[in-house]
Design goal:
disordered C terminus; single chain; 0% strand
């Protein structure tokens, strides 16, 4: 499946959307991917929590794609944030990895739908809850502490994600972790995950993403005794991704732009 960017007319979107598209022209690629994912989930998640039939039906469709590649599930073409991505890519003549972007948005969106399944009390997409931090939280929720955390089977699952050599393997291994997070109701930042998955697909950037996942896991231990979670940027911790500013990470998606 290939994204074909389209340009909406002036009457098709409210001013905030038009402003968002103009802002997107200046964003680096991985942040566009994060924004598209965050916009989509930020729009659908509240509807699902409110038990709206259309959102419930859409998540049921999305779950069928969890752990798969975008082209493998024809029923989901145009669903799961890919249309948000196409809108943000409109006019971006410099964007040359559209398929990688689509795979990242698709995988993050479908994993979120699997994570959110049957849960109405809280959203499973939560900003600043990193993959490594979520795994550490899950380990401690299971009663493992101290040095035993390093030998936890959950940590080994995270390592397996980091050592995967294909996107298909990453997808399957992330699906295994997400199912465990769902059982313990530990949320995850899926916009951030989409950004990392996009960068992971570019071989020169892969080692950096792998280091981020490991650093997230260890930072979560360092901040375990402090109030709140380590954030992706800001004063609470060393920035995981230094290109993300606290107020701009995903372009305000949390407000449902």
């Amino acid at each position: 499946m290939t994204i074909t960017p389209t340009t909406a007319g002036a009457d098709a979107s409210p001013p905030v959307e038009n402003d968002s598209v103009r802002d997107a022209e200046r964003l680096p690629a991985h942040r566009l991917v994060a924004r598209a994912t965050g916009r989509y989930i930020g729009r659908i998640q509240p509807q699902y929590l409110a038990d709206r039939p259309s959102a419930v039906s859409e998540l049921a469709r999305l779950r069928r794609g969890a752990g798969k590649r975008a082209h493998e599930v024809t029923d989901l073409w145009g669903v799961g944030g890919t249309e948000d991505l196409a809108e943000l890519l409109a006019g971006r003549t410099d964007f040359i990895r559209a398929e990688d972007a689509e795979e990242a948005v698709f995988l993050a969106s479908t994993l979120w739908a699997l994570h959110q399944q049957s849960g109405r009390d809280q959203g499973m997409h939560e900003r600043n809850q990193s993959l490594g931090g979520a795994v550490r939280t899950l380990i401690r929720a299971q009663g493992t502490a101290g040095e035993d955390e390093e030998d936890s089977p959950l940590r080994k699952r995270l390592v397996r994600v980091g050592t995967a050599e294909s996107l298909g393997s990453v997808a399957v291994r992330l699906r295994e972790i997400v199912l465990l997070l769902r059982g313990a109701k530990v949320p995850l930042d899926y916009a951030r995950m989409a950004s990392q998955l996009y960068r992971w697909q570019h071989r020169p950037d892969r080692a950096g993403v792998q280091r981020e996942w490991g650093r997230e896991f260890h930072l979560a231990a360092a901040f375990a005794g402090k109030k709140g979670r380590p954030t992706a940027s800001g004063t609470d911790s060393e920035a995981i991704d230094r290109t993300l500013a606290a107020d701009e990470e995903y372009g305000g998606y949390a407000a449902g732009e």
